[in-house]
Design brief:
Blueprint (H helix, E strand, L loop, with lengths): L2 H4 L3 H5 L7 E3 L3 E2 L14 H14 L14 E6 L2 E8 L2 E6 L5 H17 L1 H8 L3 H11 L6 H18 L5 H8 L4
Antiparallel strand pairs: 1-2, 3-4, 4-5
Helix pairs in contact: 6-7
């Protein structure tokens, strides 16, 4: 049997019952290679980034439906590299603080490893000022308490501010007090 006789004919291909799943309605098939071409400077990269951002948020792109996906990668915004990563329902988009692609790729790999290990989010929380965390606690818990519980909470907050200062980070508090388990 030769190669040509084993190939499907056009009419056979048309009669196949193929269901295609799209990431971008009728435009971008899932698990496929898609080619976007055009002369330089017309906005190919910008278009791809806008589509990716819509897909990362599960939002429509113009009038086209998108399928929500976990998106990750590095891209250039201005003259700096940025990263975007969706992980466990959290979206991280931040500057990699470099103009050099190789350095951006190394920093991105390190951050992704920290995200997977759970260390990234812990480090982000430790950077937050004590006053932000106290304000969140007050909003979520203290405001729903009776007068005496509110007074006790505010007294505790004032003592924390006296000792650590309002702008102390949680890292500073942890270093001063020691790890709490």
């Amino acid at each position: 049997m030769d190669l040509l006789s084993s190939l499907l004919k056009w009419n056979d291909i048309l009669s196949l019952d193929v269901k295609t799943e799209y990431l971008l309605e009728k435009t971008l098939p899932k698990n496929s290679i898609t080619l976007l071409f055009g002369r330089g400077g017309i906005g190919k990269t910008s278009l791809c980034m806008q589509i990716a951002k819509a897909m990362a948020g599960g939002l429509p792109f113009d009038a086209l439906c998108t399928r929500r996906i976990d998106f990750m990668g590095i891209y250039k915004k201005g003259n700096r590299y940025w990263m975007i990563k969706q992980y466990d329902g959290k979206r991280i988009e931040r500057s990699l603080d470099t103009k050099v692609k190789r350095v951006a790729e190394e920093r991105y790999a390190k951050i992704v490893a920290e995200i997977i290990d759970g260390e990234y989010f812990r480090k982000e929380v430790l950077k937050k000022p004590l006053k932000n965390m106290v304000a969140r606690y007050e909003n979520e818990y203290t405001n729903h308490k009776d007068y005496y519980q509110k007074t006790r909470d505010r007294s505790i907050f004032n003592r924390l501010y006296e000792y650590f200062g309002e702008n102390a980070t949680l890292k500073h508090v942890e270093d001063s007090v020691g790890g709490y388990e």
